[in-house]
Specification:
alpha/beta; 5-stranded parallel β-sheet; 11 strands; 18% strand
């Protein structure tokens, strides 16, 4: 089992991936690509304004086997990058200097055959000294207010990320503000239904419990204090947040106040997508690329 994010980088070196970058004329994105290439975990096909890409690459010293496809517009760069993934010229798509919505709107077109029928979501793995193992969280940046069906998709997609970490049967905590069902709080109702659906095998090989408040999900002591008897409580592998507000606040708290290491991916399609933020550290970007390289081998 993978117990640290550093291990992702070591594992990715065994079978490096090919990544198609849409609108690659961005110093942050190219710096991340350079580090990944230097570490030997991926090679890149860069789509965008060739002159700008080459100028930035020269400035940062990114020379290793540059493959640049000149594009006259951002939409052309997105379409060509997605097509490269669709034709298996690349295994992974990476967001460059474009909006996430612009990238996904092309990725999800029927022409490219990359849809699975499931809702796509952002999954982040956190490594923190305050928890005894790696912790997966969804969704901090894509699905605004997931309904019951979408939360089911989030569980299935997150389980595919857990598979990369060699977690045989991930423990999924469906988070709410309280740990009992309250008919006035839809998050608790969804959690109870999802728990029952999981018992009937509707999400594959996972164990789901909820509603669980955050403290009950990550602290055995807190769960016991509340009288909660559950193998998930205090030992969750995956947290499913009730909405994007809760997920985003949790993500930024972990990233900026808790000195956590992290890696993220967009899953739910037939190929993983690397999404890096300007606020991410260089280490986070590298770990995210490594995670997506490993995911390309299992989804």
């Amino acid at each position: 089992m993978i117990t640290s994010l550093a291990q992702l980088i070591d594992r990715a070196k065994v079978n490096p991936g090919v990544i198609a970058v849409a609108a690659a004329e961005d110093p942050v994105v190219l710096s991340a690509a350079k580090e990944a290439a230097d570490e030997g975990i991926a090679s890149f096909i860069l789509f965008g304004d060739k002159n700008k890409i080459e100028a930035i690459s020269e400035e940062i010293g990114f020379h290793e086997k540059l493959s640049v496809v000149d594009c006259s517009s951002k939409i052309e760069s997105i379409e060509k990058a997605v097509r490269a993934v669709s034709l298996k010229e690349a295994e992974i798509l990476m967001k460059g200097n474009v909006k996430t919505g612009e990238l996904l709107s092309v990725f999800l077109k029927d022409d490219y055959g990359l849809k699975t029928g499931r809702t796509m979501n952002l999954v982040t793995i956190f490594e923190t000294k305050r928890y005894h193992k790696l912790l997966l969280v969804t969704d901090a940046g894509m699905v605004i207010a997931p309904d019951l069906g979408q939360k089911g998709d989030l569980i299935v997609n997150s389980a595919s990320v857990a598979k990369v970490l060699e977690i045989d049967k991930p423990k999924v905590a469906v988070i709410a503000a309280i740990e009992v069902v309250n008919q006035k709080m839809s998050a608790t109702l969804d959690a109870a239904v999802l728990s029952q659906m999981a018992k009937r095998g509707q999400f594959g090989h996972v164990e789901v419990d909820g509603p669980l408040a955050l403290d009950n999900a990550v602290s055995r002591e807190a769960a016991e204090h509340k009288g909660i008897s559950s193998s998930v409580a205090g030992d969750a592998d995956i947290l499913v947040m009730p909405d994007i507000e809760a997920g985003n606040i949790f993500y930024k708290t972990m990233a900026f106040l808790c000195d956590s290491q992290l890696a993220s991916t967009i899953v739910g399609g037939k190929a993983p997508i690397v999404l890096t933020s300007r606020a991410d550290s260089a280490r986070t970007k590298l770990q995210s690329i490594a995670l997506n390289v490993l995911l390309a081998g299992v989804i």
